[in-house]
Amino acid sequence: MISLQQIVDGIVNLPPTPRILPKLQKLLRDPNSGIHDIISLLKVDAPMTAQIVRMSNSAYYNTGEPVQSLEEAVNRLGFREVYRISSVAAAQQVMGEALPLYNMGKGELLEGSVATAVLMVELCSRARRPDLDAAYTTGLLHSMGKVVINQYFLKHGLELYGNAAGEAVDILWERRLLGFDHAQAGAAILQKWNFPDEIRVPVLFQLDPLKAPSQQSVCCLLSIARSCAHTLRNLKAALPELDPEVLSCAGIDDDKLGESLMDARAGLEEMDGLIR
Question: Which of 146, 169, 182, 239 has minimal CB crowding within 10 Å?
Answer without folding.
Answer: 239
